[in-house]
Amino acid sequence: MNIPSDNANIGPGPAQRPDVLRNPNITAPTPEHWFDTSAFVMPRAFTFGNSGRNITFGDGLSNMDLSLQKVVKVTDKLTLEVLGEFFNALNHTNFSDAPGRIAFTPGFGRYFAAENPRQVQIAMKLLF
Question: Domain range spanning residue 74?
């Protein structure tokens, strides 16, 4: 988490962090409320916040790709290949990037985008 201003009055440079009051991770997150944003407060003026790096959990990645192929011998010199490919076959939602990391902004703690849903492609090849 980072704060959107220069609270410590050090000028541009490393990102500054808020103070954390308690564990911000929640048991049943939603894309609109991924962690407890009320667990963060602005540090006192001219001080650095006490929150560490990577203290909230992001969404995991779940993906299964599947490929099916069938070869059919039509005649001695004619073969037909049929191929089906399924990407993200279980159609699991995978959020992209990380939830909003700039504290005290409207997007703080929210996901705004997801990776591609299930994609299917089918191909046929005739060999002669």
Answer: 19-127
Query: Is residue 7 domain-resident?
Result: no
**Mean pLDDT, residues 104-117 taken together:** 92
Q: What DSSP string runs through 50-118?
A: ---TT-S---------EEEEEEEE-SSS-EEEEEEEEETTT----B-S-SB-BTTSTTBT----B----
Round to the nearest angstrom and report the end-to-end CA distance of the chain: 61
Determine the longest span between alpha carbons in the chain, in angstroms: 83
Domain count, the chain: 1
pLDDT tens-place string over residues 52-61: 888 998 888 8
In Å, what is the CA distance from 82 to each residue of 49, 76, 92?
59, 18, 26
Q: Does residue 112 contact residue 66 with C-beta atoms inside 8 Å?
A: no
pTM over 0.90: no
Q: Give the tens place of pLDDT for each residue, 101-110.
A: 899 999 999 9
Tell which wins on pLDDT, 21 or 58: 21
